[in-house]
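ESCALATION

Customer reports they have been waiting on this structure for their group meeting. Please prioritize. Original submission:
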Amino acid sequence: MLEARDLAVLAQVSAGLPLCPRPYAQIGMELGMDEAEIINRVAALKAQGLIKRLGVIVKHRPLGYRANAMVVWDVPDELIKELGATISRFSFVNLCYQRPRQPEWPYNLYCMIHGKDRTTVLAQLEQLNDVCSLARYGRQILFSRRCFKQRGAVYQAQQLTVAAHG
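Update from on-call: job pushed to the front of the queue and completed.
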């Protein structure tokens, strides 16, 4: 069963971790708990499946990255793991993952590239093509036209109480 302290931790975590050297200590100060208790409660909430994952959300536009492209390829399934590992090593690649092909969408390898401008992104893509020999595979380049709100998970106290009680 979730305690009030767990709900308070979830509320803080869903608002985003503070940008400081010890974010859990900062949250603990705000909630009247020590850093170890916050860390233990977050770990327990993850183990229960109430927190799915913790990750960083980078807001690229304020950092000057105005060109964002999702590049998709149709590559042989047996090459996915190798190509994905190679593509992921490039510093300009933010995401690289596999998705199943669909009848109307034959692509199975996805990669996100953020750049200061479109020309830079296209040059980086050509570098990927050269190093990974990707030019022989069908692909689409999907540049973002809009920037959507980026945020983490939002936990509702009512949902958490239901989830904790079954």
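Sent to customer with the following note: The longest strand covers residues 67-74.
Escalation resolved.
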